[in-house]
Amino acid sequence: MNILAVDTSTLVLSVAVLNEQKVLGEKTTNLKKNHSVRLMPAIDELLHDLDLSIAEIDLFAVTAGPGSYTGVRIGVTTVKTFAWAQNKPFLAVSTLAVMAMNGFYFPGYIVPLIDARREQVYTSIYNVQSGRLKGKMEEQIVPVDVLLEELKETEKDILFIGDDSSLFEEKIKAELKERAVFAPSSLQFPRASNLGILAMQNWLDSNRSERNDYAPNYLQLTLAEKNLLGRQS
């Protein structure tokens, strides 16, 4: 089974093609440029390099968010359109879970962070059990201080992943001391290859496409949605 995996949920754009669990190719760039302009050329280039056509893709996967509203929409719209056009299954995977996969071999807890502004973060807590990434906490938007209070109750070392973790590094170190570990820059961003691996696992577990009923996971309303609800109330 060939899998096309696409992540545009952060400033990083990542595209990968896998066959089952084997990564055939991956293209990842960390540039402050418009994903809507760069995504299709990246997909075309990768498929061309692998001598594959879009018709040879059997499963389409995308990051579900949280992250950039615009970025998530670009990825979901593009990948879902491919899935509909090719009549192939579509799966969405949490951006936080994809980030956490970068710490797969870390022996403690893995905490991906995405800045949600106002001293809040999108986050969850993961660890690895029986060779699978497992969530220990529901994905949520939470004040950093509240997250740290919860983490202080644990005894394991904690790996923080995400470019935005540097925004809170001083506070994290002050609260967790030597238990706080920060991923190197090469492991800070979501990779489409990890997305493909998780999508394949989810497909084998459920054999269910989300093509008909999927909606992006923003964890909070956009400003436009908040304004609309305010006018309606």
TrEMBL record:
User: What SUPFAM superfamilies is this protein classified in?
Assistant: Actin-like ATPase domain
Asked if the keyword Transferase belongs to this entry, the reply reads yes
List the GO cellular component terms: cytosol
Give GO terms for biological process: tRNA threonylcarbamoyladenosine modification
All copies of the Gcp-like domain together span 23-225
Q: Keyword Zinc-finger on this protein?
A: no
The alphabetical list of record keywords is: Transferase
Q: Under the GO molecular function aspect, what terms does this record hold? A: transferase activity
Please state what the protein is called: tRNA (Adenosine(37)-N6)-threonylcarbamoyltransferase complex dimerization subunit type 1 TsaB
